[in-house]
Amino acid sequence: MSPVIPAKKSLIHAIALASAMQAGSLMAQDAPVTDDDSTVTYPASYFAQFEPFSANDMLDRIPGISVARSGGSNTSSDSSRRGLGLGGDQILINGRRITGKGNEGNSQLSRIPADQVQHIEIIRGTSADLDVRGGSQVINIVLLEAESRSSVAYELNADHYHDGEVKPGGKISLTGSRGAFEYLLSAETEPRWEWRKGFEVSTLADGSLNNTIARDTRTDSQPLTLSANLGYQFSDSDIAHLNIQYEDTDSPFRDDRFLTDYQVSPIVSRVEEDITASSNEFWEVGGDYEHSFANGNRWKTLWIVNRKEDDSLRERFVVDGADRSKDLFLDNYNRYQERIIRSSYSMGLTDTQDIEFGLERAQTILDSTLKLGLLSSTEPGSAEFGGLTPFTNANATVEEIRYEASAVHNWQINSRMSLESTLIFEQSEISQSGDVSKSRDFDFVRPKIDYRFDLTPSLQFRATIEKDVAQLSFNDFTANTDSGDDEQNEVTGNPDLRQEQSWRYDLNLEYRFNNDNGVINSNVYFHDLEDVIDRIDVSTGSSILSANGNIGDGERYGAAVDGSLRLAGWDLPNILLTSRVEVVDSSVTDPFLGIDRRLNRGGRGSWRLGFRHDVSSLGLNYGVNYNESFEGGILAYDIDKIEDYDSDGFLLAFVEKQGWGGLIYRFEATNVHESYRCRIRTRFVNGTIATGNISEIEDSCSHTGEKYAIKIRGTF
User: Fold this and answer.
1) What is the Cα–Cα distance from 192 to 344, expressed in whole angstroms?
2) pLDDT at residue 31 tops 50
3) Which helix (H) or strand (E) holds 69?
4) Where are the beta strands (DSSP E) in 375-493?
5) Which residue, of 68, 596, 669, 695, has the fewest CB within 10 Å?
6) DSSP assignment of 337-393, as one string?
């Protein structure tokens, strides 16, 4: 018998024994407490045995935390939500919302050392005291109270990619307080290297081989992010915060393609080099000031100013032996700016009711230019277009001025039921200048009802009805680039685009097991959509063209179950299993085919499974996370092509060990099974997908290979 096998058995027995010994250890720690208002509080001592590094590590040990962190199906990501509003990031620090979009609460979790956390609250009820509304649950990270404290956390890492590249990275943060002054300063740079290998086979309508493309794509990016979160308590009634973030990202991109044409005799091959120089810069400054009155009423003002600049220059070359000729020049610049201010006043009406009034003004501006040069044998070239013939020289400025008035009434009906009612009135003007001059006005009334009923201390029912208005992408108003199709250099803008609206209906039922042994949450939802945004026909007499536009009404509906379970019943309380299954469907009328189909890339749903085992006696924890979409149904329809997407699941495995010098050593393996991303594109000619003929079918797949990372973490 191989000597390796007994060694493995001894290790397994040791881990099992250590886990069994910890069954009583977990109970000895301060257990989480559920308050009368359904808030679950986890004291810092609850996490002591896990020796977490950051607030993020602490959250990973809480059963059902994925439900709180996702915010529910009604919430939008911070970068895409309209203004500041009542919703947004579901993470609070010391009970307050961090005023930012890039620099918000969720981004702070990995920067806050665990030794600075006093306790963590999972707020399952509604309250006028919360800085955010609308999430199914809210996470509040409460830091230690001390006259003077400070802590430095750092991480060094190295990523090894499947092509042999090794890229370093690191982050450092300083957290602390001095009297009435609190601060969190951080700097980080993480490698974003990617080497994607792909292969495409194109066949004609009669089944004959058209061409093949072997693709080799490299992206080299190392973003630098600097952030500062500062707070000052002027008095027991007045507090102010200032939040600053700066990001600088250069992402040079190179795509080498080896094309073989089988429709000529003899067979011809050629090489194309696609080189893109890309730079991205983002900065944001935000803040808030809050005053509490003697009668308990509260006034608060929040503001944000940010700017994001994206500048890319793409040039394509055809290589024939020693000859190298340029046939594409594409220069695209976008500058996106926001200026937002919001004030609110909240007051108590009775012992069980309160109300909040809010006003918000937001200005959003996009400045965009696009220069497209193509190779021509008859027209002269221009140095401004890389020596090629000018084909497109577009510029546009899009601006929205938006005003919002809101009222929120919160009613604690009894000790087990609460009702939160919201009414928002919104008025905006969108104007466009440049190649197109146009101005339009919009008015929206957005009500919402959020009802919660604690059937038992462990079982909670939630129901919400909401009118939602989605934020428009101003890039859809102007000519822009399409990086997903080699044969489509630019996409047309649509100055007549309207906001997509929806009525959203959600039902949730959550059960929390005794002794913090797990959580099961079920969610059923239905979204009634209006002015769905998808591709529409904007063809001219000489060209078949499409752009993003409003195609009519639609529906989205689905159901999801989240589960999180500790194996305490098997005397393994430090093994945590997590899972989620979501089934989703949708319906809209296709503007080209006139058929009922799913929403653009709507899909059928997804599932995920996670495993974590903490062996505290060995200072060890390890786990695996896997997620995958259900196959089929991820289709995108355009005026002259239909795309069908599919991809393998994503796998992340890790092992972490407390080691020499009090440091934490972590090893991660990502995509070890070489997950493939595939697409079948059917192109049509002599008309649209409804009136034309199939010209070719492109079947392509690619993968980025595995990645291995070593991380060393420490605090002092």
Assistant:
1) 40
2) yes
3) helix 65-70
4) 389-411, 417-434, 438-454, 459-469, 480-481, 490-491
5) 596
6) EEEEEEEEEEEESSSSEEEEEEEEEEEEEEEEEEEEEE--SSSPPBGGGTTBEEEEE
Q: pLDDT digit string (tens) for 58-84?
A: 989 888 888 777 655 444 444 456 777
On whether the CB atoms of residues 547 and 538 are closer than 8 A, the answer is yes
Q: What does the pLDDT look like over 222-243, one tens digit per residue?
A: 999 999 999 999 999 999 999 9
Q: Model confidence over 155-198: pLDDT tens digits?
A: 999 999 988 899 999 999 999 989 899 999 999 999 999 999 99
Strands of 205-252 (E only): list them.
209-219, 224-233, 238-250
Confidence check: pLDDT of 582 > 90:
yes
Asked whether the beta carbons of 408 and 133 are under 8 A apart, the reply is yes
CA dist 131 and 121 (Å) reads 14
With b meaning 16 or more CB within 10 Å and e meaning fewer, what string describes 360-378?
bebebbbbbbbbbbbbeee
Helix (H, G, I), strand (E, B) or coil at 189: strand
The b/e string for 665-699 (b: 16+ C-beta within 10 A; e otherwise) is ebebebbeeebeeebebbbbeeebbeeeeebbbbe
Which CATH class, in words, describes the domain spanning 31-145?
mainly beta
Q: Which residues contact 514 (CB under 8 A, 6 or more apart)?
A: 458
Query: Does residue 598 sit in helix, strand or coil?
Result: coil
Residue-range domain boundaries for the chain: 31-145, 293-494
**Measuring CA to CA, which residue among 325, 311, 202, 196 is closest to residue 256?**
196
In whole angstroms, what is the distance from residue 131 CA to residue 108 CA? 17
d(CA 498, CA 127): 34
Give the C-alpha separation, 368 to 481, whole Å.
11
pLDDT of residue 25: 43
CA 181 – CA 175 distance, rounded (Å): 11
Length of the chain (residues): 716
pLDDT band at 573 (very low <50, low <70, confident <90, very high): confident
Nearest C-alpha neighbor of 655 from the set 617, 612, 616 = 612
pLDDT at 370 over 50: yes
Residue in the structure block whose two tokens are 């959600």: 506
Region of poorest pLDDT, from 2-11, 29-38, 354-363: 2-11
Is 589 within 8 Å of 595 (Cβ atoms)?
A: yes
Q: Give the gyration radius of the chain's Cα atoms.
A: 28
| pLDDT score for 138 | 85
User: What is the 8-class DSSP label of residue 22?
Assistant: H
φ/ψ (deg, to 5) at 49:
-65, -25
pTM for the full model? Answer: 0.87
Structure-token match 């993968």, residue found: 703
Which residues partner with 666 through β-bridges? 656, 711
What is the per-residue pLDDT for 673? 83
Cα(641)–Cα(647) distance, rounded to whole angstroms? 20
Q: What mean pLDDT value characterizes the chain?
A: 88
5: Cβ contacts below 8 Å, ≥ 6 apart: none
Q: What angle do CA 532, 535, 540 make, to 5 degrees?
A: 135
Question: Alpha-carbon dihedral of residues 594, 595, 598, 604, nearest 10 degrees?
Answer: -160
Tens of pLDDT along 462-501?
Answer: 999 999 999 888 888 888 777 777 777 778 888 999 999 9
pLDDT bracket for residue 332 (50, 70, 90): very high
Does the pLDDT value for residue 28 go beyond 80? no
Give the separation between CA 477 and CA 470, rounded to whole angstroms.
15
Task: Give the C-alpha separation, 498 to 469, whole Å.
Answer: 10
Terminal Cα distance for the chain, rounded: 48
* C-alpha to C-alpha distance for 189 and 167, rounded to whole angstroms: 11
Phi, psi dihedrals of residue 235, rounded to the nearest 5°: -160, -175
- Distance, C-alpha 410 to centroid of its chain: 30
